[in-house]
Structure formats: structure tokens, C-alpha cells
From TrEMBL:
This is Class I SAM-dependent methyltransferase. CDD domains: AdoMet_MTases (cd02440). One of its GO terms (biological process) is methylation. The lineage of its organism: Bacteria, Bacillati, Actinomycetota, Actinomycetes, Streptosporangiales. InterPro entries: Methyltransf_25 (IPR041698), SAM-dependent_MTases_sf (IPR029063). GO terms for molecular function: methyltransferase activity. The keyword Amino-acid biosynthesis does not apply. Residues 49-149 form the Methyltransferase domain. Keywords: Methyltransferase, Transferase.
Length: 259
């Protein structure tokens, strides 16, 4: 994987964060709530944390700012986002990026863990997975977490299959918050960000590698965007308590405890 200039990576990650805020006007509030939960629930000042679907490491970096004694393994399969994160956060104590596909069985065995995981986190990532892959991921994750370990997932999760009237209100709250935050229009969207990446010659090799991996991926099925799917999959994986710790509209922080 090519080594990118730090300043270039910092600029692209700042731009990534801005386009993500276009979908999540309260993104930083959700980060804060999630890290509050890690701090309160990890049970130690130096937890071992897995960041699932880490992208360029936005959550991992914020978590280590608050908990500098933690060890965070940031996991993703996107070579371009991993390269940006690695270049931007190179030398950050306690942070390691792992290039692994969470949909391929055995991913935990390739992490080189020397103790059980205290906390697993994710943000705006796991909804992309088909239900079968999500269930397999949770089942494998549960096997490497300590008793009492905490799973925290911040994402848009729809409750329309269970509470359709409330789900409609949740979407309305989110839409109104977005309009208030971006009165002059939202920042560039996900597609525009990737189009801009494609136009940067420094990133061309990583972009082609990303396209090669996406073309060769064997993941099948629709996304898992429903809250009930995540709750059911966590219970079936053996997590005991599952519930929402923080919420704004359909933007939730779902938590689960390993018995």
C-alpha cells in the first residue's frame, strides 16, 4: 500500500468528515455519546477496542483523544480509506489499522489479539452488510469479547417494520435537523467525494485497487438498515442486553452487552 503525504491525507479526511455531516448533522454529538459510553462502560482506563468498518479512522482518533491509554484496532477493507487513515494518524500511540473484510469468516483470528476485547464500536458502517453477513459478524465478535464487554453501533436504523408511525416521525426529525444545519444546502455528498478522489492523480493507484476489490467481492443480499434486524442478530449472537443509549430521529446509538 503506498504511503501518502500526511497533509494530503489530513485534507481528504477533513473533506470526508464534512460530507459525512451532510447525512448526519449531529455526527459529532453521536461520536461524543459513543465515546462517553466507552469511557463509562469499558471497566478500565486502557480498554482494547475494535473499530468495525473504521473508514479513515475518524472515530478511532477521537476515541484515543479521550482515552489515550486505550488500544484501538481499526478494521476496514477499503484500501484507499485505510491509506488515508494510516498516513494521517501515523505514529498515534495505541492505534493500529487492519486491512480485513468483516464478511470473511475468521477475521478475528487475524487480528493477533493477546487478550479479550473490552469494547467493539462502529459508526455508519454496518448497515451496508446483508443480514446473513451481519449475523455472522456478530456471532464471531461475541467469541472474542470478555464477559461484560460492550458493543456500540451508531447508525441510521429504521423502525418502520415495527413502529411505522414513530418511524415516520423519526425521519421527519432528521430531515428538519438537516435543513436547519445546512440552510444554504448540504456539503458534497458521498458520490461527489468519490468523484473528486478519482480526479486526484496521487490517489489513482489506491482507487484502482479499491475498484478491483469491490468488483471481486462476493457479498450478496440487501443492506441491513432495520433496527429489528440488528437487535435480533445481537440477541442470537449471545448478547444479553440490547437497547438504544442515544437517539435523534432515526440516528441511534445501539448498545449490547456480552454476558
Amino acid at each position: 500500500m503506498p504511503v501518502l503525504p500526511r497533509e494530503l491525507a489530513q485534507d481528504w479526511i477533513a473533506r470526508w468528515d464534512r460530507q459525512q455531516e451532510g447525512y448526519l448533522p449531529d455526527r459529532e454529538e453521536r461520536f461524543t455519546a459513543l465515546i462517553d459510553a466507552v469511557e463509562a462502560g469499558a471497566g478500565r482506563a486502557d480498554p482494547l477496542v475494535l473499530d468495525l468498518g473504521c473508514g479513515p479512522g475518524s472515530l478511532s482518533a477521537r476515541l484515543l483523544d479521550r482515552l489515550p491509554e486505550a488500544t484501538v484496532i481499526a478494521i476496514d477493507a477499503d484500501p484507499l480509506l485505510l491509506a488515508l487513515g494510516g498516513a494521517c494518524h501515523d505514529g498515534t500511540p495505541g492505534l493500529r489499522f487492519a486491512d480485513l473484510d468483516l464478511c470473511v469468516a475468521g477475521w478475528t483470528s487475524r487480528l493477533g489479539l493477546d487478550r479479550p476485547v473490552d469494547v467493539a464500536v462502529s459508526t455508519t458502517a454496518l448497515h451496508w452488510l446483508p443480514e446473513a453477513d451481519l449475523r455472522a459478524l456478530f456471532a464471531e465478535l461475541a467469541q472474542v469479547m470478555r464477559p461484560g464487554g460492550l458493543f456500540l453501533n451508531g447508525d441510521h436504523m429504521d423502525a418502520g417494520d415495527v413502529t411505522p408511525a414513530l418511524a415516520k416521525l423519526e425521519h421527519a426529525i432528521h430531515d428538519r435537523a438537516t435543513r436547519r444545519r445546512f440552510k444554504e444546502g448540504p456539503p458534497e455528498d458521498w458520490r461527489q467525494w468519490w468523484d473528486a478522489v478519482a480526479a486526484d492523480p496521487v490517489l489513482s493507484g489506491l482507487r484502482h485497487e479499491r475498484e478491483r476489490r469491490v468488483a471481486g467481492a462476493a457479498h450478496h443480499g440487501s443492506e441491513s438498515g432495520e433496527l429489528s434486524t440488528h437487535v435480533s442478530a445481537l440477541h442470537d449472537a449471545g448478547f444479553a442486553e440490547v437497547g438504544t443509549l442515544w437517539q435523534n430521529g432515526d440516528n441511534r446509538l445501539l448498545a449490547a452487552v456480552r454476558p
